[in-house]
Every structure is written in structure tokens, then in C-alpha cells.
DNA sequence: GAGACAAGTCTATTACGATAGACCCCATTT
DNA sequence: AAATGGGGTCTATCGTAATAGACTTGTCTC
């Protein structure tokens, strides 16, 4: 954990969202989508592909781009990073902020409880 | 919600942690602490005070600095921002990532359940 | 064999958050 | 009256993430 692979900057994150939603995807096609959704020029997309490829976040083989890290892994890293940065690693404070920030429905509450049960078995 | 007041950059956040932990605090004293804990020069601290003051994050009156936004408000904003940025606002995905990222003890699980009960009444 | 287009690199430039140096005013001390 | 220290501003500079322009190579087609 704490790997450089998982720490994504904002632009990198937006880009990876597209990759995760379309992989495996042809690089030229990816340029097209990034231009539509992010307004990026071709070279910007290729620069991003190269940087993330160097860091092992994705691979570009025979013009086909694939993620090497899972969305879920990055999400877990982001939770941990936030927990440390803004909550001094206090789990109760984190949960409290979550509960206050969200207006949860009965249904959501039921689901969350169930997930906790599952996780703690 | 979504206010500019709540979005803090990294350096701003570290700085506000110090303010929250010491307020109300004399500005010269604050410079001293920022130098010790962050290695900042005096002008860096005052620049930070001015910027955050302009945005309504804190106030500096008669050389006494006080936060105008609560730590809890910022924490809630951060949760929401992360939820949107990395989880496409999916609460189940967020909870799942949290449960996977943390190895919770029996005690913590009990506490979390209790907090959910409280919040949903 | 001249265009056209896919696939990509290499080297800037831009934007902006982070940080600080030089300077100012005023009160107190020596 | 000069030195010291508190309280502060104003205007850079620095670092680096974000973005792109110009160029290259190869293949296919007309």
C-alpha cells in the first residue's frame, strides 16, 4: 500500500475513469474520447498514456490500452489518503462526517448495515 | 454546500489543522508554530492568513487568528468531494472501499453500527 | 509516388499552488 | 535617536502538473 501507482492527480484520475470505462481500448479511439469529454489534444492524451505507463498504472500494447491497476484499488487508496490527511486516521470522525454529509435513505442504511455484517464475518 | 470556503489545497489544509488546534491564536505565535511544524517563513504564513481571510475561511482581528469554518464542515466537504470524484457518487461503492481499506476491530464495528443507528433515527 | 491517416515521440509552454525576500509602520526599550 | 521586535503588505520566484505543437515513421490506397 501507499504505492505511487495508486496516487493519481486530478487530470490523471479523469483520464483513468475513461480508461476504466472503456478498456480494452484502441489508443486512437481513446484520443477521440478524451478530446470529446476532456477537450484534450492528441499529444496530451499520448503524454498521459506514457506517464501512466511508466508508472505501471496502465499498459499500451499494440495500440491497445489496458489498466494495470483496478479502480477499486485506487478507491481504497483514496479513502486511506483522505483518512490520514483530513481525519488524523480517526475512523469514528470519518464515519461521523460521512453520516452527516449524506442524507441516507432507509434502503441505503439497510444495505450499509448488511455490508458491515458481511465484512466482519 | 460546494462552497469555495470548504475546498482547501494541501498546504492550506496543513495550515488550518494548526489553526484549529490552537485557536484563538496570536498571529506572531502562529508564525512561530508554522515555522517549527511546516518550515515556513513569516511572510509565507501571513500570505496564507490573507488568502484564507479573503475567502472567509478565517479571520485575523487585532492580531488574533480564528477559524470561521469548522473542521467538521471541511471534513464533510472532503467526503462529498471524494464521493463525487472517485466514486461517481455511489454510496455502496464508497462503503465497500472503506471496509476493504480498513481492517476494523470488533470494537470499531460495534461503534460504527451504533453511529448509524443514531443517525437514522 | 503522393496523400491520407494511424500511432507515437520529444520538447516546449502554460497555469497555478507554494513559498519567500524586501520593505513599511508603529510602539517600546536602551 | 537608534535599535529592536511585533504585525503586516506587496511583489516576486519556484516547482511542477497540465497541455500542446511540430515532427516522425509506417502502412494503405488512389
Keywords:
homodimer; 121 residues; mainly alpha; Arc Repressor Mutant, subunit A; 3-stranded antiparallel β-sheet; 6 helices; 3 strands; elongated; DNA-binding
What layout of secondary structure does this protein have?
The structure is a homodimer of 121-residue chains.
Chain A: H1 10-22, E1 25-26, H2 27-38, H3 42-54, E2 58-61, E3 64-67, H4 71-87, H5 91-101, H6 106-119
Helix pairs in contact in A: 1-2
The structure holds a DNA duplex (30 and 30 nucleotides).
Whole-number radius of gyration of chain A? Answer: 18 Å
User: Given the helix and strand composition of chain A, which structural class is it?
Assistant: mainly alpha
SSE order of chain A in H/E notation?
HEHHEEHHH
Could you describe the largest sheet of chain A, including whether it forms a barrel? Answer: 3 strands, antiparallel
Treating each run of at least 4 consecutive H or I residues as one helix, how many helices of chain A? 6
Global mean pLDDT of chain A: 94
Amino acid at each position: 500500500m501507499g504505492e505511487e501507482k495508486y496516487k493519481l492527480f486530478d487530470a490523471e484520475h479523469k483520464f483513468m475513469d475513461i480508461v476504466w470505462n472503456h478498456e480494452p481500448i484502441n489508443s486512437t479511439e481513446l484520443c477521440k474520447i478524451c478530446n470529446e469529454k476532456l477537450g484534450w489534444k492528441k499529444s496530451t492524451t499520448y503524454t498521459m498514456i506514457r506517464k501512466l505507463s511508466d508508472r505501471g498504472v496502465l499498459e499500451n500494447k499494440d495500440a491497445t490500452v489496458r489498466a494495470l491497476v483496478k479502480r477499486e484499488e485506487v478507491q481504497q487508496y483514496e479513502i486511506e489518503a483522505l483518512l490520514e490527511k483530513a481525519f488524523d486516521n480517526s475512523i469514528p470522525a470519518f464515519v461521523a462526517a460521512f453520516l452527516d454529509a449524506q442524507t441516507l435513505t432507509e434502503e441505503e442504511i439497510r444495505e450499509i448495515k448488511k455490508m458491515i455484517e458481511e465484512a466482519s464475518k
